[in-house]
Design brief:
By secondary structure, the protein is α+β, with helices and mostly antiparallel strands. It has two domains: 44 residues; 106 residues, Nucleotidyltransferase, domain 5. It contains five helices and four strands; from the N terminus they run ααβββαβαα.
Length: 158
Amino acid sequence: MIGSRPDIGFVIVKLAQQMANPFNNHYRVRLHLCSYLLATRRYRLVYNRLSNKSLVAYFDSDWGQDHKHCKSTTSYFTMLAQGITSWLNRKQKSVALSSTEAKYIVLSDCSCQLVWTSNLLCEIGFDIPVPHLYSDNLGSLFLNTNPVQEKRSKHIDI
């Protein structure tokens, strides 16, 4: 999953969290995952060299799904040449008080990855346009661009 299968990242993380005390539904999910892997064994990550060279990232989070630790799950992936170059799926390090804050935290992580990838590509000689960052939550983007919102978000772990 880490090197070649971003499509199963979320399921692997959730199953790994239950390894010490699995229930029957975890076995059903595991069997479903195995059948999915069998059906998609010929899928590959494909890079289109003739496509736009723009670096693109998509991010999302699920706020409040972990009732035990009250932490959200962060997920993002970056694409170059219409192929995935990096991805992440993990629990957030701090507790978010709203879905907007959960998405704001993943926006920060994803932005760091975009900056790093852009700098790497520039250092090795690729001239790429400004990266694009996509989300389904306008609140996190507004929080990022509005300096007045600082007092509402200063509890987010730096």
